[in-house]
Design a protein that fits this description.
homodimer, 331 residues, alpha+beta, eight-stranded antiparallel β-sheet, 7 helices, 16 strands, 19% helix, globular, S-AdoMet_deCO2ase_core (chains A, B)
Chain lengths: 331, 331
Amino acid sequence: MTGHFFEGAEKLLEIWFIASNNNNDLDNDTLSNDLRNIPRELIEEVLNLVNCKVLKYAKSATTDTYVLSESSMFVFQTHFVLKTCGETTLLHAVQPMLELARDYCGFDIVDQIFYSRRKFLRPELQKTPHTSFEHEVAYLDSIFESGCAYVLGRTNVDCWYLYTLDKTSVSTKSDQTLEVIMTELDPEKMKIFYQEYTSSASEATKKAGIDKLFPNAKIFDYLFDPCGYSMNGLLPNGHYFTIHITPEPDFSYVSFETNVPYDQYQEIIRKILKIFNPGKFTTTIFGDTAAISLDRQRKLFLYSDYGRIDHQVVCLVDYDLFYSYYKKHPS
Amino acid sequence: MTGHFFEGAEKLLEIWFIASNNNNDLDNDTLSNDLRNIPRELIEEVLNLVNCKVLKYAKSATTDTYVLSESSMFVFQTHFVLKTCGETTLLHAVQPMLELARDYCGFDIVDQIFYSRRKFLRPELQKTPHTSFEHEVAYLDSIFESGCAYVLGRTNVDCWYLYTLDKTSVSTKSDQTLEVIMTELDPEKMKIFYQEYTSSASEATKKAGIDKLFPNAKIFDYLFDPCGYSMNGLLPNGHYFTIHITPEPDFSYVSFETNVPYDQYQEIIRKILKIFNPGKFTTTIFGDTAAISLDRQRKLFLYSDYGRIDHQVVCLVDYDLFYSYYKKHPS
């Protein structure tokens, strides 16, 4: 398999909408402000532009969820999350999604946007506009006003990029997100995610212990041929979690993401580390500015076996963003 | 003056040394570990490589100070600070200074380094290796191990770059630094720094109120022809402050820097704002990790007339670094 490579690192886009003309309470014959009104075939057309396909689709009372050939999509009433890995061109979804949101849901105002990703392992393989963060920022700046581009971490080692809008958001206030990005994973743990060793997605989910993370989740999982794994988990109250695994030893990569409340994050991260045993990992946490003590945050989120090499805080308009980079102690 | 431009934004280098063989207490005939032993003509040769000249030289019991044609240099026993603006090539000083420190002072170990600068107004005018932060980082990575490159602020608006080493430092523990970088300055205040309106450097210092900032300072100041101003101020206990002014309205720029203790910073910044009345400014503060409450820091350092647009914290090995960006409220 000389030369074989897959970029596990995802591009992650989250867009929140509001309508200048509120139609939430109207009956079904009228245009109502809900992104889930966008016909599924039109969502799939947008995903074609990004170069990925729908593998599984499901819905709950609050959430439409898609397992994709390259990662995942979640669609809620007023926002969506699209996460795509490999050489996909995620930003090509932005303009079409804005148009669909306007035409099918009456959402004429972008309330907030978050675009983020880790530094690619092999940036030279990416397609326009993902060839550099500068290009991605220029692309987004051509669509949005008041965009802010940040780089967290060490630009000459590992780093993480974020683009967001400098504005007070109406709808995102009570939201929070945790992302854990792991590299240099334990090859023994990664074997679970090869069809050679595991016969089905649900077997992989159980073997790894992913089903125990949130016992009340509805899980939609997929085991790729010959290897690789994706899962979306739906939880009550519009909460979700999603895991994507590139198990090949030369470029192993696992991402975990959830929007469950902040107070669960330390415990969740402990469980994730036990499942995947990474050599290095970063955590990014978006939390409500008012609710978090920076000093407490600094003292918490320390894990035995790992040194916290980097810890950065960015105070955004409505959020505090915490970026931490951890490395396993030499054994 | 069509096309006239000067890049006020300085490159700032600080290097701390230690000796594996400690000779601090030996008599003068022996090599003693003190950077002030480097012959002045050799320092001037290094400055030639950087493309700047010495305009004024003075010394106190703790500090050698140079006012340069492009900014300033301070030499202490175990560290030096070199700050150069315009199209100077400051990083060309690194390797020669390491050699001089080794040969004349027995300093064979670099204890810590800080290289920083604001985003240039016109990066395309800079000379190698300052044509981009990536190039600067590659240059420094070729000299130092364990270098970490950070970007603070918004890469698509205003930002500030830092390169430092990922190591516990022996000598820098009790040090701290405040830098205030101001743009869009009050043209009336800037008039003081034109020879047309002010006949001497000391008159400019008094008119502006710079002499009142630290009443016990020894001030070495310089008024350029036709405009522009630099000053170095020496204080007791190895403390200093330095101000550099590019007054032209199209690209006005003022920097202030000091190493006096952290508890004075809020009050100093208030005074500085009153003197210069900038439209925008950034503050960068390096302070002892153990001494600072991040939550307190967040609540302090707010100034009437200005909104704090960005606030970021980087927790380094021995320091907390605070970056804040302020913009004047529309009047």
